[in-house]
Each structure stands twice: as structure tokens, then as C-alpha cells.
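User: quick one, sequence for these C-alpha cells?
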């Protein structure tokens, strides 16, 4: 079994510990270094073989984006950030994935699965967890309803409630958009407006002002326009 050498770069000890605790549960992954700055990470990259680097975006002296740009050769990189909008910059740098803090175990496993698929590595322990990111439970009235993520067409905010539109039905749940946004996998869903979250794979067409999902046209909010169009343009070229 090939061991995957990992490095965690973050100026917050708590954030390092979260990632470390997750990786410690997987025998294939070995943490060979933890760093509090990009300068420290640079020294280690020159001395050791690193297969996968978890890199915080916001750090003193040199942030994660600047650090990536400064390197001639990089390992596979998973960006971590407490600020969702900053992560969009990583798409231009060919990063593997990005994780928004606080990082959940299912979301971490999904990122590691992406790494292993790219490298052609099988790992049953991750395969078994894959289904955890395929659905979530939301409360409607007194019932907890299983929500299959691939069935979502869009999510609309209605003050203190959300309308989750599926193909032939809708679910109304009391939840904020921010809470729902944090529960969904960031690589599959995108917030395009203060009132709308959509699944990327269901987008039929888009322009600078709206996206089309089925026969529904949803607006792109001015606040979200730049990161949304940057991400969709990037994906359309891939």
C-alpha cells in the first residue's frame, strides 16, 4: 500500500488539529509536516517528498494563493479557507479542491476521494464513506426528510425558510441560506444570489445576469456575479 505524504499549512493550530485528526483515521495518509507559515512550508517542500498539501489561504506574510504562484513545482493542493469567496481564486491555479472551514469529515473524505481518483488509488475506507455526501436530512414540520442531493434543482430563500425545489415536488424547511450553504458540497453547488443556491450540473445555460435550470431562469446577484461567472467560465473551459 503506497503511503501518501501530507503536509498541513495553516497559522491556526485548531485548524491543523482538525485536519490531522481526520487523516489519523486513515492508514494510507501520513502527516510528515505541519507548518504555521508559507515560508516554513517552502523549506520542507525542498527537503521532503510531499504528495498532498492542505494549504490555508489567509496567512501572514504570504497568503496561500501567493505561495502557490511562487512555486515552480507543487504537490496536489487542497485549499482551506474560512472565507468562501477567496477559494474561487484557486480554480485558476489548478488546485485539487477547496474546503470551507469548519471542515466536516464527509467533506474531507470527498476531497480525498477526488485526490485518489486523480492518482488512480483505491481505498475501501473512503469508498465506504462516499454515500455520506450523497444526501442529507432536513426537517419539514415534525418529519426529518432524506434529501438526495442529485435531485435538487434549486434552493430558494423565503425569509426564515428555504424552498428546496426537486423535479416534481418541493420541501419547505426552516433554515438559513448560510446554514444550507455550509451543509452542501462546495464542488457541486454554488450560491448565485442572496436568495438562490443551485447545483452546477443542472445548469442548462447561463449569461452575465442569469442561469437557466430546466425552464426556470434564476438571477445572478451583483454581489455574487464576479465569483460565479469566474467559476462557471472556468468549468465551461474544462
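Assistant:
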Amino acid at each position: 500500500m503506497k503511503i501518501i505524504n501530507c503536509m498541513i499549512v495553516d497559522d491556526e493550530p485548531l485548524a491543523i488539529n482538525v485536519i490531522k485528526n481526520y487523516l489519523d483515521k486513515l492508514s494510507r495518509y501520513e502527516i510528515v509536516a505541519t507548518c504555521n507559515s508559507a515560508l516554513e512550508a517552502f523549506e520542507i517542500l525542498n527537503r521532503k517528498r510531499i504528495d498532498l498539501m492542505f494549504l490555508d489561504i489567509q496567512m501572514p506574510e504570504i497568503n496561500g494563493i501567493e505561495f502557490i504562484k511562487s512555486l515552480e513545482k507543487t504537490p496536489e493542493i487542497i485549499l482551506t479557507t474560512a472565507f468562501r469567496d477567496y477559494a474561487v481564486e484557486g480554480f485558476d491555479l489548478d488546485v485539487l479542491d477547496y474546503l470551507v472551514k469548519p471542515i466536516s469529515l464527509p467533506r474531507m473524505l470527498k476531497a480525498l476521494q477526488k485526490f485518489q481518483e486523480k492518482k488512480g488509488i483505491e481505498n475501501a475506507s473512503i469508498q465506504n464513506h462516499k454515500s455520506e455526501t450523497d444526501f442529507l436530512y432536513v426537517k419539514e414540520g415534525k418529519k426529518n426528510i432524506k434529501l438526495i442531493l442529485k435531485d435538487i434543482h434549486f434552493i430558494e430563500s423565503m425569509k426564515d425558510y428555504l424552498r428546496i425545489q426537486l423535479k416534481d415536488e418541493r420541501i419547505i424547511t426552516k433554515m438559513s441560506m448560510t446554514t444550507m450553504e455550509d451543509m452542501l458540497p462546495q464542488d457541486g453547488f454554488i450560491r448565485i444570489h442572496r436568495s438562490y443556491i443551485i447545483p452546477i450540473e443542472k445548469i442548462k445555460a447561463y449569461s452575465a445576469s442569469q442561469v437557466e435550470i430546466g425552464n426556470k431562469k434564476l438571477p445572478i446577484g451583483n454581489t455574487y456575479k464576479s465569483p460565479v461567472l469566474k467559476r462557471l467560465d472556468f468549468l465551461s473551459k474544462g
